[in-house]
What does this fold into?
Amino acid sequence: MLKFYFNGSPNPTKVALFLEEAGIAYQPVAVDTRKGDQFKPEYLAINPNAKVPAIDDDGVTVFDSNAILLYLAEKTGKFLPANTPQNRAQTLSWLMFVATGVGPYSGQAVHFKHFAPKDQNHDYAHNRYQFEAQRHYAILNDHLAGRKYMVGDTYTIVDMALWGWARMAAFVMGDDAAAKYPNVKRLVDEISARPAAAKAIALKDNFKFKAEMDDEARSNMFRHMSVKAA
It folds into this structure.
């Protein structure tokens, strides 16, 4: 059975969405990044980057959420657009746009908005990542104008990849995000209303994850702070 290494953050949640949508039997394996589970040797053997998610598909290991989505979609033949050269090109282009832009900039925007030490001046970094997050969401919003889905006329892994972070847009950029990017919100709302999305979001509730953002959690999640302090 496929093992799915996860926590409740945006990237694992979009993979959970695919697994639930596709009806794939899987064993969820909790990785508590606030406790440092991602640095255990047995997990590093699966993902040397010490991030979640990752999967072990009967000995085939895949890490990075967008790589996992593509791997599973191609293996199962599910949630891909019609097989044309144009659709293939658009799928790869937008999937990588989410992988290299939306996810990283959203994550950094969240860090400097919510978790960076308050006793230091992070205005430049905060403004930089907020700008880039907003720029990427504006591109998505423009692309979705007059389109129901990101690629072609069907619900695909590109929409799932976008949903992982976009459902957290208010946490990333502020409460006005929904009003600023209505086309993105429309797609997110549609996906969030699907039964599989509810199951993907609720998956974390079956496990005991560390809730406190204390010194241990900061040390494990933001190791650069510990290195600097040392």
DSSP finds twelve helices and four strands in the chain. The chain has two domains: 2-78+200-225, 85-193. The first helix runs from residue 10 to 22.
